[in-house]
Design brief:
The protein is an alpha/beta fold. It folds into two domains: 161 residues, Lyase, Ornithine Decarboxylase, Chain A, domain 1 (Beta Barrel), CATH 2.40.37.10; 247 residues, Alanine racemase (TIM Barrel, Alpha-Beta Barrel), CATH 3.20.20.10. Helices cover 27% and strands 29% of the residues. Strands 4, 16, 17, 18, 19, 20, 21, 22 and 23 form a nine-stranded mixed β-sheet that branches. An eight-stranded parallel β-barrel has the order 5-6-7-8-9-12-14-15, surrounded by six helices. Strand 16 and strand 17 form a beta hairpin. Helix 8 packs parallel to helix 10.
């Protein structure tokens, strides 16, 4: 957990300043305690028997995935690389679901070969390609059909359903698509998949996605004459990132999610995908002040890290990341707050983490922490931009800190 003790930022039981003395910045640091707490909070808000899948796209470090696997989670992957990460983290193939709108032949073939628990197909054409590969290998493959519902979730900060999207099959066409897929050889149609948005902080809105998915089981049963064996749901659970946002009311979510899941057909399994909710608040990005300057009355602090490592914090990852992430100094300064704009080392005006933030009067060598950075930080950033070195990743567990990904020079990635 990240917490303040007398003006000093701690990670679990270790002062962050001490960690930064040992490991050069910039780096990401994660709290294993916070990862476990987030998983247990979510699992505790769901009915017994509901399965939680960790969305590896949120944080692709296999050591993070191991923490969730040890707690009993499955994994949701969206590429061949993420499948390799899930396998490296020790997830059994039966506990892995493969999602994504554009799966290549190699990815579909790997899913068949591995015997994954489910492939969430996004079209009849994709299901046919999967059927052909499964027939070549003489192996069955379990699938769910992703459905794009008629209605959208208005509380989702990033909409991925309810309107014209490249994801899944529109609800109006789903019955025919289900019937077509059910006739394909070597494809075992288990159920439906629904994911309509992300960064949802309203408990009722998050639970409404679950309710919508449960309601769609009637469509499945009407089309095929049997209830689905699996209902895969991504409710898009979020965490507060910006000033004025409130955390998800888990008590209300628990009440409404239980009510929705109670209506599912007897024997239908429910899986809940989560990424940001599980790991965002468990991580921080740490950078050091390299230079201080003033330009026409505005004070700037130039850091050794920026948008190339943390695109979301710089507002360069998705339209809704346009406000400042929570940022503070690793150690409180003794001076009064002074408005300062934090920028990175990249030669672009886009490399700004925050405008005129009232921090203590910074000095060269001071360190700052960008909090709520455990999800879509390292995994969603243009690490090759300007060929700066990629940052390290650290994992703290109580009083123990380990480097779980070394920094590396991106200029060394060429093939001679």
């Amino acid at each position: 957990m990240f917490h303040d003790r007398g003006g000093e930022l701690f990670v679990d039981e270790l002062p962050l300043a001490t960690i930064a003395d040992r490991f050069p910045t910039p780096f990401y640091v994660y709290s294993a305690t916070a990862l476990r707490a987030a998983y247990r909070a979510l699992a505790g808000a769901l009915p017994d028997g509901t399965e939680v899948l960790f969305s590896i796209k949120a944080n692709s470090n296999p050591h993070i995935a191991v923490v969730f696997r040890e707690l009993g989670a499955g994994a949701e992957v969206a590429s061949l690389g993420e499948l390799a990460i899930a396998r490296r983290a020790g997830f059994a193939p039966a506990n892995v679901a493969f999602a994504g709108p554009g799966k290549s032949r190699d990815e579909l073939d790997a899913a068949v070969e591995a015997g994954l628990g489910c492939v969430n197909v996004e079209s009849v054409a994709e299901a046919r390609r999967l059927s052909a590969l499964a027939s070549e290998r003489q192996r069955d493959c379990t699938v769910c059909l992703r459905i794009n519902p008629r209605t959208r979730n208005p509380e989702a900060r990033q909409q991925m359903g309810g309107h014209a999207v490249p994801f899944g099959v529109d609800e109006e066409q789903a019955a025919a698509a289900l019937a077509d897929i059910d006739r394909l050889p070597r494809v075992q149609l288990a159920g439906i998949h629904l994911y309509v948005g992300t960064q949802v902080l309203d408990a009722a809105a998050a639970a409404s996605t679950i309710a919508t998915a449960v309601d769609m089981t009637a469509l499945f049963e009407q089309a095929l004459g049997r209830p689905p064996g699996l209902v895969a749901i991504g409710p898009g659970l979020g965490v507060p990132l910006f000033a004025g946002e409130q955390p998800l009311d888990l008590d209300r979510f628990r009440t409404e999610a239980h009510a929705a899941i109670a209506r599912r057909p007897a024997g239908s399994r429910i899986t809940i995908e989560a990424g940001r909710f599980l790991c965002a608040e468990a991580g921080a990005y740490i950078a050091t002040v390299l230079d201080l300057k003033e330009s026409r009355g505005q004070r700037f602090a130039v850091l050794d890290g920026g948008l190339h490592h943390h695109a979301a914090a710089a507002g360069s990852f998705g339209n809704f990341f346009r406000k400042a992430f929570p940022i503070r100094t690793v150690r409180a300064t003794s001076s009064s707050p002074v408005p300062v704009t934090l920028v990175g080392p990249c030669c672009t005006p886009l490399d700004r983490l925050v405008e005129r933030l009232p921090l203590g009067d910074l000095s060269i060598g001071d360190r700052v922490a960008v909090l709520a950075s455990g999800a879509y930080g390292y995994s969603a950033s243009p690490l090759l931009f300007l060929s700066h070195a990629a940052p390290a990743e650290l994992l703290v567990d109580g009083t123990h800190v380990a480097q779980i990904r070394a920094p590396f020079a991106t200029a060394n990635l060429f093939v001679d």
